[in-house]
Structures are given as structure tokens and as C-alpha cells.
Design brief:
heterodimer, A: 284 residues, mainly alpha, 16 helices, globular, B: 166 residues, alpha+beta, 5-stranded mixed sheet, 4-stranded mixed sheet, 10 strands
Chain lengths: 284, 166
């Protein structure tokens, strides 16, 4: 059995997320969906609702009274916060199952990229901030499945990038037979995620190959770059990724706006880590 | 063991202390030692300056090169470090590769941070004895205070240094 065949088999073996999580991702990726739509969905999911209420009552928010249902989360903390809660709660189990240090740091990178995408979307009025958060969180799901194979081939992969012959995604494709974007795209297809999410996951390293200058994919490309520059989720490959300058320019964002976004990303990630009790730094 | 996160400055003369950073990508860490006095510190900053935003400068000064280095120099002096003996190590300022462009990209950060760190150290006349900066590497720096031994690790590991040390 070749390594590529093993990887494809591993991708097919990944348990799909619960139907409710997929419905939630479809809903938050729909720019027309309202907070009421999300609240209506939560009425059918007692466990998620309980978790949302628990997070809302965290001392971090210092609310003047106790939140007893998810509609109060919207009233006190806003619908963007509700979306962050449901996306984080709905997707975290997949990251947790990946296990080990990689799972922890991958989750931190995912969350930071979601926050970065949401901030850029709001700042520049590009796309829908809720869909941007979901796409940011999910963009690297393929890496979780590739991780054990990449670990096995770490020496070869790192030799490829250390010699500056290839960037990391090209090295993955060369050594493993497919890169993490392609692996993520396959998972997103299997899980029947919305088209916008599938595109962002599958092309977040090469947005220029998307037809019609797909806004969300470009946004995730830039958000991922910002997150890596902050050192969040940087592993043995270092910064061996390339950034499409056209995607940055299409956001019409100035250096000063990007610097402002960087500080917000760190501050909001810290808050989310405190809230979700994530480890601050996972050494790999 | 003190972890020096982005936006923080730590200095100590605790002989048993080990200061280290988490992985640094485009941010920069400036480690400064006074080996004779057994005093050392690290300033780990994220951005070269606060731009036109005075509020940012006042609420989180150590996120920025100038105030972070100033704060470190002050803390070292308060511990009794001799300004003429200070030795600096510059680490970080890596960046992604930018494709299809001429001139700097709005996203580029590493080189800006390195230039700002050099300018800040020049301001205080502190000699840089080693710099591991730029390229598309992520790095960590660790300082053993008692021995003033500075260890810098890089990923991906350069070919010349298979064990990752330098």
C-alpha cells in the first residue's frame, strides 16, 4: 500500500461531524442567516445551548446578571459572540480527537485564524464575518489527518524546505502525494460543507486559482498569513509558505490597519483562550 | 523559568533563572546580558511602532520596538547592570515569501521589526553580538541568566546546524 493510498484511506475513515454541527456550519456560512435562525437551531440542541449559556456566564464578561438562555447571549454579548461560541464548540471535538500537542496548537492556530478573518471581514466590509470565522477555524482541517504521515516523513519534508527548493505545501504534495489543502478539501466534500467553506479550505494557499476572485478564500489566505506571522501554529516548517500579494491588495488594507488588526487578534485570542481554557503555548 | 510572551519584557538577576520565548515568527526578541553582573533580560515585541495611534502606544507600550527596548534597558539598569558591558542578541523578524510582487507588501513585518530593533539598540549604544533574523524561519531564544549563555533554535533547521542549536 503506498503512502498516498494510506492517506486517502485515512481521510475516508475520518468520522463525520454530527449532523447538528454540519447544519450549524451551513447556517453561519449563510450571509442571509440571522441571529434568530441560529437561536432556532439551538432550540433543538440542548447540549450546545447549555455550553453556550455556560460560556456566557464566564467571569471574563462580568455581566450584571446570570444568562439563562442563548437569546440572552445575543442580547448581552452580541450575535458575533454567539457564532464564535457555536463554531468553536461544534468544531473543537474534531481537533481534540487529533490528540497530542499538534491537536492543541492546531486548534489555537484555527481559532486565531478565525478571529483574524472575522476582524478583517468587519474592518474592510469583505464577505460575512460569521462565515469568515467558520472558514478560518476550519481552513487547516486537512493538516490534522496528514499530521501522522508528515511526522513520519518529517526529515524528508524538512530537508525539502530547508534547501529552499519548495514551500511547505509543495513539499507536502511532493513527498506525501497531496497537500493539506487538498486533504481538507476532500474532508469538506465528504462532510457536505457549504461550497464557500469547501473553496476556502481547498484553496487557502492558492486563492489566485479560484475563479471570480473568491472573496472568502482570499480573506482566509491573508488571515492565515497574519496568524503565522504571529507565530501561532508555526511548527517544524517555520514560515515556509508563500503569500499571494494580489489577495492582500484586493482587501485594500493599509499597513497601519494590518498592524491594528494584529494587536486585536492577539488580544481576542487571549480572551478566547481564557474563556475556552486553552493552553497559552503548546511547545512542539 | 520565565516565558517571555509577545508584548512583554522580563529582566532578572536570579542566577537560577532561564528566560525563553515561545516560537517567534515575524516578531523580534532582543536579549540583553551583562555577563559580569549575571543580569539578563528579554524584550519580545510584535510591531516596530504604534503608528499614529497614541492610545495603542500608551495601553500596550511593550508591543512596540522602541518602548520595549527602553523598558528592558531601564529594568537592567535598575538591577545594577553596567551599560557599557551590555551585549545584545537579536532574534526573529522572519517572514513569509511574497509571490508576484515588486516592492514591499502591506503585510510584510519581519524586516520592519528588525530595522526598528537595530535602531532602538543603536539609540542606547548597545552592541549586537549575534543576530539570527529574517528569512522564512521561526525561532526561539533562551537565556541562562547565571552563565549569560544564549541559545537560539530555528525551524526549519538550517543544514549547517542539524541539532538546531546555534
Amino acid at each position: 500500500v503506498t503512502e498516498a493510498a494510506e492517506i486517502h484511506a485515512a481521510l475516508e475513515d475520518v468520522a463525520p461531524p454530527p449532523e447538528s454541527a454540519v447544519r450549524m456550519l451551513q447556517l453561519v456560512s449563510d450571509a442571509e442567516a440571522t441571529a434568530d435562525d441560529i437561536l432556532a437551531m439551538l432550540r433543538d440542541d440542548d447540549e450546545m445551548t447549555r455550553s453556550v449559556v455556560k460560556l456566557s456566564n464566564s467571569s471574563i464578561y462580568e455581566l450584571p446578571c446570570e444568562v439563562v438562555d442563548a437569546s440572552q447571549t445575543v442580547a448581552y454579548l452580541g450575535s458575533r459572540t454567539l457564532v464564535r461560541f457555536v463554531v468553536a464548540l461544534g468544531t473543537h471535538p474534531f481537533f481534540a480527537r487529533a490528540g497530542g500537542g499538534h491537536g492543541g496548537e492546531a486548534w489555537r492556530h484555527a481559532l486565531a485564524c478565525g478571529i483574524a478573518a472575522q476582524i478583517l471581514s468587519e474592518m474592510k466590509g469583505v464577505g460575512d464575518p460569521n462565515g469568515a470565522f467558520a472558514a478560518g477555524v476550519l481552513h487547516d482541517i486537512g493538516s490534522l489527518v496528514l499530521a501522522p504521515f508528515a511526522e513520519r516523513e518529517a526529515q524528508v519534508l524538512h530537508a525539502e524546505i530547508a534547501s529552499c527548493r519548495r514551500g511547505y505545501t509543495e513539499a507536502e504534495a511532493h513527498v506525501l502525494g497531496l497537500d493539506h489543502s487538498a486533504a481538507g478539501s476532500k474532508l469538506a466534500d465528504q462532510w457536505r460543507l457549504p461550497r464557500s467553506l469547501r473553496h476556502a479550505i481547498g484553496h487557502h494557499h492558492d486563492p489566485e486559482f479560484m475563479p471570480d476572485a473568491d472573496e472568502l478564500t482570499q480573506l482566509i489566505h491573508v488571515a492565515d498569513a497574519l496568524t503565522l506571522q504571529l507565530g501561532i501554529g508555526v511548527g517544524g516548517e517555520g514560515l515556509s509558505y508563500s503569500t499571494c500579494v494580489d489577495a492582500v491588495r484586493r482587501l485594500h488594507v493599509s499597513t497601519e490597519e494590518i498592524d491594528r488588526a494584529r494587536l486585536r487578534i492577539l488580544a481576542e485570542l487571549q480572551r478566547s483562550q481564557d474563556l475556552l481554557q486553552l493552553p497559552e503555548t503548546v511547545c512542539r | 523559568v520565565h516565558v517571555v510572551e509577545a508584548g512583554s519584557v522580563v529582566a532578572t538577576q536570579d542566577a537560577g533563572a532561564l528566560l525563553h520565548t515561545p516560537p517567534i515568527a515575524s516578531a523580534v526578541a532582543v536579549a540583553i546580558c551583562d555577563p559580569d553582573q549575571g543580569i539578563a533580560g528579554i524584550a519580545h515585541f510584535l510591531l516596530p511602532d504604534a503608528g499614529s495611534d497614541a492610545k495603542r502606544r500608551s495601553t500596550a507600550p511593550e508591543m512596540f520596538a522602541g518602548p520595549a527596548v527602553e523598558s528592558l534597558v531601564l529594568k537592567l539598569a535598575q538591577l545594577g547592570a553596567d551599560g557599557s558591558r551590555l551585549r545584545a542578541y537579536l532574534v526573529g523578524g522572519g517572514d513569509l515569501v511574497y509571490r508576484r510582487h515588486a516592492g514591499p507588501c502591506e503585510l510584510a513585518l519581519g524586516d520592519r521589526n528588525v530595522a526598528a530593533a537595530r535602531a532602538a539598540l543603536k539609540e542606547y549604544g548597545i552592541r549586537i553580538v549575534a543576530a539570527r533574523v529574517g528569512g522564512n524561519r521561526a525561532r526561539r531564544v533562551a537565556v541562562e541568566v547565571a552563565s549569560a549563555k544564549v541559545r537560539i533554535t530555528e525551524t526549519p533547521v538550517p543544514r549547517r546546524s542539524r541539532d538546531g542549536s546555534s
